[in-house]
Amino acid sequence: MVTYRDAGVNLAAAQEAKRRIRHLAQTTFNAQVLSDIGSFGALFRPTFAGATDPVLVASADGVGTKLKIAFLTGIHHTVGYDLVAHCINDILVQGARPLFFLDYIATGRLAPGIVAAIVDGLARACRNFGCPLIGGETAEMPGFYGDGEYDIAGFIVGWVDRPHIIDGKTIRPGDVVLGLPSVGLHTNGYSLARKLFFETARYETDTQVEALGCTVAEELLKPHQCYLPALEPLLGSRQVKGLAHITGGGLLDNLPRILPAGCAVELRRGSWPILPVFSHLVALGQLPEEESHRVFNMGIGMALVVAAGDAEAVSQNLRARGYEVFTIGQIIAGDQTVRLT
């Protein structure tokens, strides 16, 4: 007799993983969640207090090859946090606040402890940023993923009142570009970073690198910053004309996504601190400036476009609440490109 377990699927492990996930997810629930984990679908009753024309904003993303660092180190409780933070930032750029989050975890052999660690990171971020984890999927797929490997994806739904949508349409030459700092690579550029650290420099994950002030693993597992706490008080002010989450494509490819026709961005070199990890990677790979600013965030995780007359007030608002902000450039007449000056 051949069983499902003989084929590589452990139903008992799946049930144990679901039990752990249910407990962690419940810690993120609020009064708008109307169903428990385990239903075929999740029930959520949104409230849009004070909104005149609420609009849903949805996004999906993953963590990319940062997961390889989790595999190498056995540290799995940070990548879930990264996923939630990344997804919140992606809808934040349109002025949206999160409503709820769903996850997808796929692996070759389901290990309840690893799944629970991943979901612990998801739940921690969801609690921190008021975004209930209301459901998801855990798939055991033997023969599809290598031993000890998995992939994760996140799905987020948020909302914005239509009059307060941030879409970049009012951006004009003369506007100012502000930058909020990143804490490291966030979740982008890891394929190149792994090649430079592990193949070019021949580091191990536990190698202490003086230039970084920590081990390679500690640097590469630094969390993806979530900018909702910094920016939420500004969302209804109409002072922010455009927001760009600096992810894959870096400053050079993400800023043009919010520019209207006839506008370009001029970024000033040296106007923000380049984090040591980026300086070290550039030196290891002898990377051209354009390549480094297209692959990595180079120390800026979120960019804001504001009118010149609002730049000081917005900066003071952020600094008064304990957030760093840098004036990194300006909008000029052009063809929706970015140049460094």
TrEMBL record:
It is found in: Cytoplasm. GO terms for cellular component: cytosol. Keywords: ATP-binding, Cytoplasm, Ligase, Nucleotide-binding, Purine biosynthesis. One of its GO terms (biological process) is adenine biosynthetic process. It is an enzyme of class 6 (ligase). One of its GO terms (molecular function) is phosphoribosylformylglycinamidine cyclo-ligase activity. It catalyses: 2-formamido-N(1)-(5-O-phospho-beta-D-ribosyl)acetamidine + ATP = 5-amino-1-(5-phospho-beta-D-ribosyl)imidazole + ADP + phosphate + H(+). Residues 172-336 form the PurM-like C-terminal domain. Gene3D superfamilies: PurM-like C-terminal domain, PurM-like, N-terminal domain. Pathway: Purine metabolism; IMP biosynthesis via de novo pathway; 5-amino-1-(5-phospho-D-ribosyl)imidazole from N(2)-formyl-N(1)-(5-phospho-D-ribosyl)glycinamide: step 2/2. Residues 53-160 form the PurM-like N-terminal domain. The keyword Signal does not apply. It comes from the Bacteria. Its EC number is 6.3.3.1. The keyword Ligase applies. Belongs to the AIR synthase family. This is Phosphoribosylformylglycinamidine cyclo-ligase.
